[in-house]
Amino acid sequence: MTTSATEDRILQILEADAQASVSEIAERADVSKPTVRKYVRQLEDEGVIVGYSAEVDPKKLTGQSIALVGMDVDSEQYVDATNALKQLESVESLYSSSGDHMLMAEIRAEDGDSLGDVINEEVLEIDGITAAHPTFLQERLK
What we know:
Mean pLDDT: 88
Number of strands: 4
GO molecular function: sequence-specific DNA binding
Oligomer: single chain
GO biological process, one term: response to amino acid
Protein name: Lrp/AsnC family transcriptional regulator, regulator for asnA, asnC and gidA
Structural class: alpha+beta
InterPro entries: ArsR-like_HTH (IPR011991), AsnC-type_HTH_dom (IPR000485), Dimeric_a/b-barrel (IPR011008), LrpA1 (IPR049859), Tscrpt_reg_AsnC-like (IPR019888), Tscrpt_reg_AsnC/Lrp_C (IPR019887), WH-like_DNA-bd_sf (IPR036388), WH_DNA-bd_sf (IPR036390)
Keywords: DNA-binding, Transcription, Transcription regulation
Helix content: 40-55%
Number of helices: 5
Number of domains: 2
Distance between the termini: 31 Å
Largest sheet: 4 strands, antiparallel
Strand content: 15-25%
Order of helices and strands: HHHEHEEHE
CATH topology of the largest domain: Alpha-Beta Plaits
């Protein structure tokens, strides 16, 4: 077994179940518990694992709506705009993108109207953000 194969197995297990215990991961990856601890610590230190989270079904949230928002950004203001977006409390996650938009953000608010307000009054007010294209999430299918 190669090191990368061991890392891949551990990562696949954690991606499927971020709450898996070291014992569970060791058993499923066919390695020892100290090996799991070593690789997880190393992957965290290297920034490969950046956090652990729960997956949420937007339809089942009470009092909260979620949108994925693609944003177009003036390339000369990209760094400042990105830093400003990171400071917004309603931005749950932010990604650079090679698709139709330079940035993609998961934005949460109490309802659809509030999400619209966040996009119009906070996101689009950031210098360098030239357009925002929201997609409102309705139901988690997988």
